[in-house]
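Notes from hallway chat w/ T.B., transcribed later so I don't forget. T.B. wanted the structure written out for a chain they're using in a teaching module, and asked if we could keep both sequence and structure tokens in one place. Agreed to drop them here.
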Amino acid sequence: MRRSSALPLSLSVPLAAAVALCTIGSAQAAGTAQGTGLDPAALRAAIAVRPADGTAGVLAEVHKDGQTWRGTSGDVVTGKRISPDAHFRIGSISKPMEAVILLQLSAEGRVDLDQSVQHYLPGLLPEDRFKEPITVRQLLDHTSGLPRDFEGAPDSSPDEDIERRLDYLTFDEVIRQTLRPEGRPAPGPRFRPGTRQEYNSFGYRVAGKLIEEVTGHPYQHEVTARVLEPLKMRETRPAAPGRSTPVPRPHLPGYQPRSSGELVDVNVQGGLPASMTSTTGDLDRFIRGLFDGRLLGPEQTAELFAVPKGVDGKPLPYADGSNCNTGPGRGTACFSVGLMSVPLPDGSVLWGKTGSDPGYRSGVFASRDLGRRAVYAVGTASSSGDGALAVAQRLSLAAFGN
């Protein structure tokens, strides 16, 4: 039985939700708008929960050319109102924060992005299977070729997923259970480092371990000191080491169904050192601080907007030939160091990140000039959480479709 249910889910849902952004209910949605550049009625309709979505509730915050709109839909399971200031689990939206820490350490001369993981963490990657050097940059831009979290472990049941969400795993535990598993063959590389791109959360487990090794501090200390406090992200909280905790109130409810169909509120979770809860307001504050230079210098900021390229100067292929980018860029890399790019129908590009935790799907995206920004969070009411795709698509069209 696999242990991965305590971790953010695999890419399939969050990446598809992000890609849906570029494609041009049972509860009443409510929201407010300032200015005339946004259509409040269209935005309310976009986040209204629909039965086919399999969602329990939605939060969204949109900024366009100086106008702001914030809205929520009610919790369709309990019928209760959801506050626009509700907290939720952000899943892999923490990855850009990890990237920021390593980019800062690079600027301080403490980490070389082109130096190998084997140099900084000798013995961590079994030498008989990982013979080629894997750089720190390759961890961050998903070109490492490392296996995925718990690769090869058998699938778990819905009931096991619900119970195991309470587990808290350190970076060391995830790395050990992935690279040196008991009772099943140990995985090797998925491809040669630097030859293609494939979204891989495991690379960020290794990156988290590197942060702790280089700084001598727990990850939670570094992200608080280097990201949360400088940006005054007072509503964002890292996971509590060694235990499970609830999402702070007010919170967006997230549900998972048991095998019997019973919905269970899964807001109490363990997770990883990089797991966090936040709000739409704080995530908007993060992406503004990330893009405007408050966290990084010009050289490091440039890494956020550069997808990896091959020796021919073209973006690397995406591992499965699709699943990244759309239109002419389909099948090529869309991830940079920490972020992903999403082209819009008008030719502009949003940069940001999606996240997935049991019961929660979320995303934060912005244009490079910050004139367009959107943050959304979905509480699920189904096992797949696929309704986040539909919500992201509707929100994108309502906010940026013209």
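Follow-up for T.B.: Residues 152 and 184 are 7 Å apart (CA to CA). Might be a good example for the class.
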